Amino acid sequence: MMQDSNDDHHGLSHSEVTRLLAEDGPNVLHSDQRRMGRVLMKVIREPMFMLLLSAAAIYLTLGELREGLLLLFMVALTVGLTLYQGGKTERALAALRVLNSPTARVIRDGRTMRIAAAELVRGDLILLEEGARVPADAGVLEASNLQLDESLLTGEACPVEKFAPSTKPEPHALPSGQTDSATLVRSGTLVVRGSGIAKVTATGARTELGKISSLLHELVEEPSPMQRHIARIVTVLAVTGLMLSALLVVLEGYSHGRWTEALLMGIALSMSLLPEELPIILTIFPAIGAWRMARANVLTRRLSAIETLGSISVLCTDKTGTLTENRMRVVQGMIAGRHMYFDESDIGITSPEWRTLLETAALASSPRPTDPMEKAFHQLAGESAKRFAPPALTQLLQEYPFTPALRAMTMVWKGDDDAPLLVATKGAPEAIASLCGLTPAEVQQMQNDIMHLGSHGLRVIAVAACNWSGALPASQAQFGLRYLGLLALADPLRPGVPDAIQRCHQAEIRVIMITGDHPSTAQNIARQAGISADQVLLGDEVQAMAEHELARRLRTTNVCARITPLQKLRIVAALKDDGEIIAMTGDGVNDAPALKAAHVGIAMGARGTDVAREAGSLILLDDNFASIVEGILMGRRIFSRMRGAMIYVLAMHMPIAGMALLPVVFGWPLILYPMQIAFLELIVDPACTLAFENTGSDYRERQAPRRHGAAPLLDARIIILVLVQGSVALLFAVSAYLWFLERLTHSQARAAEFIVLVLVNLGMMFSALVPDRYFFRAFCPGNYAALIISIIAVIMLLATVYLPALANTFHFSPPPALDLAMAFAWGALALLAYECAKLLINRMQTPSAATKV
């Protein structure tokens, strides 16, 4: 993002920046990278890892070298897989941190550009703008109503005014303690008003913030409701498993005196009951999902926001720059009913009346414009307002900024000593009419002109001016302004918006457009986008309504016009009180409260302020409405995949735990030792992370229904599905084992039963991949991870049965070919049983939601 600098400041050259960056290093306080060793330590502290190591130690102590080494090999495989997934998660989070790193606008080589704040060096010229955080310590060179919030460093809540050295007041006129810092800005402080230019004096650890950074504590994000819910489930199951295992060890040891074997049985039972994959799912899925969303231009600042995305029922969006391209061009003007159409340049505008209107609009804009509207005024009026002003009219004396209370902006320009000051004002037509004191007839003429321009979807701005002598008033309302006319700007609708609005409707999301523009302009743009615009709610109406009345009105209104940021906050509160789950977009300093109040705040990344980005849960990197919709639907898919993985994990642990416990209870030959369970974990772990997270999307998943806000991750239907599928799997496993025990030796029956357990596991994986559809939908294009895992698992399974060394270690003997075929048949029948159970449960839940082919 680069443009010509509009002042005499040239800034550093590229070679100077390179040299200083090499000398001082990047402008960062500390590195936040996690080392792989920390990930490894986290893995080692996991209960499952400790249980596997304990089992391996027992085998080695007993002299069972082959069993012990094989179990250690499986432990290494499990750790390697966990480290791979942990590394993948860390890389995704690191990529998100890079995208979310702060930026700064600087002047280098005479040009204005936006760079990463980490690239700032001493001597850089930084542009200070309202809503931005100061990226480094700097000395002020220019200031226009510049005020900063320095509470991060000083604890003082009141904004502090800053001055350029040439305009710094006398020391006695400054508040106590500010005489030395009135021309300095500090890293981390916030520009709350005005603008300026400053020269960087210190970066990174050499800033005032860097010197005290060791005293600052990084905020630790609280666990989300979903994480707390799953943590409780894991804790209950872990405690239950330990109690049952201890009881099993004691009973088996006292009954038969086989304490070592009893200890191995207890370890196996604990492993079978511990759903260690659930916390992994809650870590990996949101992180990788957030990385995928960032590729779709939606940056996730808080991973917990992904939970809420699937529940959004109302999306409140800005118009300018979100629904429209934010690429404004002045196309029409009106003066007392008379029309003028403008081309790309001002060539041909010879009428003094029209030329004065354009010149005044440019003079009423910032000399260094960043707003697309002000850029459009400058472009049409010339490279800068000074080009059309008298030669002596070159100094900007005072700026009266736009405020929600008075939607107008005034700039006061100085000429010769004897000449009066020129006052140029632009703003909302209603505000200009009030400032100019128009008569009712003049106001009616203005309204007619506005309706004509607004009906074409144009943004309408009124312009006024006057000459002034004497001391400047405290408020722009005290100038005796003269109304000059209206200028209309075209801001075309983004091409993909109507389709995105249609997708919102299909996904049960209502879109409400909230804008500060005139009602007629808002209605026209809303209709182009496909938003119902029969009713329009005005800001004055919002201000006058009670909360319950506002909530009732919002149920049938999708367009809100002339809305201030504080009124946005009231709209969000009313919708929340009415039971809606709200996503809100915003870009300005005053939008931060509404962004924080919404369930999901979506800040604009391209044009948004630092304050808005910090308040939002998501940052829209391209400010495109279509990206918001894609992000919401991706959030739903992430949630759906997490739920499918949890169904699989919880249901699969039922047959594993059952076949670890029932043989002991009924005196059958043991089936599952720690080694066999470790083998099953080598299937479950990659299945729940690789297969489910990489599931390809078909059309129906892209149209995933909205999840109601109060609905838990594991609702009644899901719990029933888990219990039914787990019970079906256990029933098939027990039936198969009893059948094989009647026909085969113990080692052959154990091998055949283990084959059934693995196939039951794989069948459950394919069924859970598509919890609302038939299992063959899991084979949609791009979903190869589950198939690859299944092929590898079957090859490994056959190796443990038919390779003598492995078969002896697993206590297996190869079953006859007919019984091998029967084992595979049991697995296929179990998959059919899962599908029947899934179909019945879905139909019992709601007849219209039955599983579809």
From TrEMBL:
The keyword ATP-binding applies. It catalyses: Cu(+)(in) + ATP + H2O = Cu(+)(out) + ADP + phosphate + H(+). The chain crosses the membrane at residues 43-62, 68-87, 230-251, 263-285, 645-665, 671-692, 713-739, 751-770, 782-805, 817-834. Pfam families: Cation_ATPase_C, Cation_ATPase_N, E1-E2_ATPase, Hydrolase. GO terms for biological process: intracellular potassium ion homeostasis; intracellular sodium ion homeostasis; potassium ion import across plasma membrane; proton transmembrane transport; sodium ion export across plasma membrane. It is a multi-pass membrane protein. This is P-type Cu(+) transporter.
